[in-house]
Known about the structure:
- Helices cover 20% and strands 27% of the residues.
- By secondary structure, it is α+β, with helices and mostly antiparallel strands.
- The chain has a single domain (2-93, 115-340), classed as L-amino peptidase D-ALA esterase/amidase (4-Layer Sandwich).
- α1 (82-92) crosses α2 and α4 (258-275) crosses α5 (302-323).
Amino acid sequence: MSLEPTTRGLTAVEGLRVGHHTDTRRPTGCTVILAPEGAVAGVDVRGASPGTRETELLSPLNAVEKVHAILLAGGSAFGLDAAGGVMRWLDERGIGVQVRRAFGTDAPAAPAVRVPIVPAAILYDLWVGDPTIRPDAAAGYAACEAATEEPPPQGNVGAGAGASVGKLFGIERAMKGGLGSAAVTVGGITVGALAAVNALGDIVDPATGAVVAGARTESGDALLGTMRALLAGELPGAPPVGSATTLGVVATDARLTKAEANKVAQMAQDGLARSINPAHTMTDGDVVFALATGTRAGPANVTLIGALAAEMLAEAVLRGVLAARGIDGAGMPTLPAVCDL
């Protein structure tokens, strides 16, 4: 039994592969979580500025049971284009929901068509570098090509490449966010998480309550402590709508129904609330997906899985900022990382 988060991250869940595409022209990119055999999925949206695709399909009221990939991308709403590349990659390999075509009761059945199901969500990183450069279908395809069962790289990669945190007092006082992942095995069930951390608020270590990354003081060389500043009466200006967002994926090898997967996604959102302060704001589009590959037999304890998912998502958020590296270049804000302060 492993009670400490593993270094393998989300790929510790059997049946999943993770791939990143990081654009070298500016800090942006996308991350794909592949489930070639299909995975039952749910979703929970808490931020007020989400950008998503195919999330309504994940409602227990709707028909399709399994998805074949989840895409996370930078580039704001433009980044949703990357899902088309993921669909093309899956289509070329015959992966998708089988749909048999028929043209009337007397006509012979036409060949089956497989339609890949690829829910997606995006975060805002357009103020880092050239905003005309954003993830597209080619980027999504490249992320699929790079996907493996190896531990996913963390930090300035994929959907976390252009991420930033602590923006409530302006991007000039923010810090670099990133992508993190963690997993744990308890009682034979593995639960993993992956997060692209691009929050408006500060990042907090849940174990100590200490702020580890976020808004800086006016001098720029120390952490401000956003909530401490707010409580002391230091009021920020109005941030642009949709200028943040943390995206998460939690997964388990247990068997879940769609309703149970949605409950796990809901519980996992608590991991964001423990590690981001404030979370789920008007300018964040926080979205958490839950996947269940079902490779482990036996009944699933949804409460246990949801509790572990929240813990691992909080750990993934923390790892994302600890693995990040600062950026400072032409046409970009200076965003130091934790290691720089």
